[in-house]
Specification:
This protein is α+β, with helices and mostly antiparallel strands. It has helices spanning 17-29, 64-76, 165-175, 186-196, 266-274; strands at 8-11, 38-39, 41-42, 48-49, 56-60, 90-95, 101-104, 128-135, 147-149, 198-200, 206-211, 225-227, 237-245, 279-284, 295-299, 302-306, 314-318, 323-328, 334-339, 348-350. 16% of the residues lie in helices and 26% in strands. The N and C termini lie far apart (45 Å).
């Protein structure tokens, strides 16, 4: 335990150096526009660049190591079964000198209740409830790059010895360590916070868990956190994170609808309830047919899970008419389609 307010924990022996290198190497080789390394964006949907998030990021949604880490994350969080709809892709991050991300919440806010999805988790909505951060490079103590929790305090500093923001900033300027940063910028002020508030130092194969929701589903404002500026021109900070949701996320089957827009979905819901109801269906790659040695599993065209030889059985809640596809990973070619239907109702499909 690193802190109770916010709730931050070291997760020991969570992943290793080889897994770290594999994830970074795959991110660097990614070429698709949606997943390759590029200037980080913000927001739940679309691509929107924020001047106060200057890092780079990419996503690994189907790599074998990434999938293994994602499943491990959910097991660590107490889930008995893995559901792709409860996770985002593994986000891979790169911070070079001066790049940073101003303190923010991973919990997605919808202040005007304008979104179709219901994000209010204190009621029936779903949202990100926990984050597991993976550090994939070593930085020296003077290199910066910490993860700072702006509302928290270091556990090893007595209350009477805590340093305020202005004092921390003054000491930082006197030291001359950040003379290369323009005075008064958010980056300079953030370094001062990183030196005085609760912060986690990057270390190869270190994992940290923190929560964005309280147990009652309310947003935890104490989880405000940011990526501190990297101060070294030699060492690069590599990291990755997984956001875990308390229920199906946006656009997945079972995702809650904002009550303001429920009437738009009434007819759709009526059709589903008129069918025989949801089915618990499993899909299995037996590992016999070489044509399915390296494939992925999709709900229509939405990636769902790794489905190659040796992958675990996939269990889903599905409805009549839902389409599930198996696609070859190398070129995305669809090799097989299953459509759930009453006429040929099955509860287990395999290749």
């Amino acid at each position: 335990m690193l802190s109770l307010v916010p709730r931050v924990f070291d997760v020991l022996n969570f992943f290793d150096v080889n897994e770290s290198r594999e994830i970074v190497d795959r991110a660097l080789k990614e070429t698709s526009e949606s997943h390759k390394m590029k200037r980080s964006s913000t927001g739940a949907t679309g691509y929107s660049v924020n001047s106060q998030r200057t890092s780079e990021n990419g996503f690994d949604t189907s790599g074998k190591v990434a999938m293994a880490v994602k499943r491990r994350c959910m097991t660590t969080l107490g889930f008995d079964e893995y559901h792709e709809s409860f996770t985002d892709g593994l986000q891979v991050l790169r911070y070079n000198k001066t790049t940073a991300y101003i303190p923010h919440l991973d919990w997605i806010d919808d202040p005007g209740l304008r979104e179709n999805h219901d994000y209010i988790t204190s009621k029936k909505g779903t949202n990100r409830f926990a984050t597991i951060l993976l550090y994939m490079s070593d930085l020296d103590p003077s290199d910066g790059g910490e993860t700072v929790f702006a509302e928290g305090w270091p556990a090893d500093v007595p209350v009477g010895e805590r340093v305020g923001k202005e004092e921390a900033l003054r000491s930082l300027r006197e030291s001359g360590e950040v003379d290369f940063l323009e005075r008064g910028t958010w980056q300079e002020k953030m370094v001062a916070d990183c030196r005085s508030r609760l912060s986690v130092k990057p270390r190869m194969a270190r994992a940290v868990l923190f929560y964005s929701q309280h147990p009652n589903g309310e947003e935890d404002h104490a989880s405000l956190h940011g990526g501190c500026p990297v101060l070294s021109s030699v060492n690069t900070k590599w990291a990755a994170n997984l956001w875990a949701w308390n229920g199906p996320r946006v656009d997945y089957a079972g995702a809650p609808i904002n009550p303001k827009f429920a009437h738009k979905h009434k007819n759709k819901e009526k059709i589903l309830t008129q069918a025989d109801g949801s089915q618990r269906v499993t899909f299995q790659n037996t590992g016999v047919d070489p044509a399915y040695a390296d494939v992925d599993f999709y709900y229509i065209n939405e990636f769902w899970a790794d489905f190659s030889h040796g992958s675990p059985e996939i269990a889903v809640n599905t409805y009549d008419g839902h389409e599930w596809n198996v696609k070859r990973r190398s070129d995305g070619k669809r090799l097989l389609t299953w459509v759930i239907g009453r006429g040929d109702r099955k509860y287990h499909y395999e290749v």
